[in-house]
Amino acid sequence: MSPFKAFPPVGSEAPAFSMRDAAGNEHSTLAARGKWLVIYFYPKDDTPGCTIEACEFRDAESALQQAGALVWGVSPDDQSSKAAFRDKFSLNFPILSDLDHQVAEAYGVWGEKQMMGKSFMSTHRVTFLINPEGRVAKVWESVTPTGHAAEVLAEIISQRG
Fold this sequence. Notes:
Elements: E1 18-20, E2 26-28, E3 36-41, H1 48-66, E4 69-75, H2 79-88, E5 95-97, H3 102-106, E6 110-115, E7 118-123, E8 126-130, E9 136-140, H4 148-160
Parallel strand pairs: 3-4, 4-5
Antiparallel strand pairs: 1-2, 3-8, 6-7, 8-9
Helix pairs in contact: 1-4
């Protein structure tokens, strides 16, 4: 049995949201229309897998921008955690605070996890590619952080034609 609710299906309109980053700047899916949007959900700031994934997106940021894409990382950590994570790893894209996990729930990535025999609720590592019209173009479930940013960039280039 999957730990997830249903993800928004490919081709469907992506759930709209507006959230603030570590600096308090607002980022809205509606304002991002016209660009490709990579929304990657991750469990926790400054943990090993999440750091690898964030640093790979950081290193690919200029190539992603050239491909017409924005990157947003989303986790349930608060804005002070986001600021520390951003500053520690010189992240050059917005990481957004989903404290009440409403956005994670809307995207179907909030669910049960198991660690050391204990169950708990958390954000799962899932990435969504949203096309310039605001529709889900691709979903990556259970992401492996290493190599993921390059995989996302290749998909954007492929879909752009």
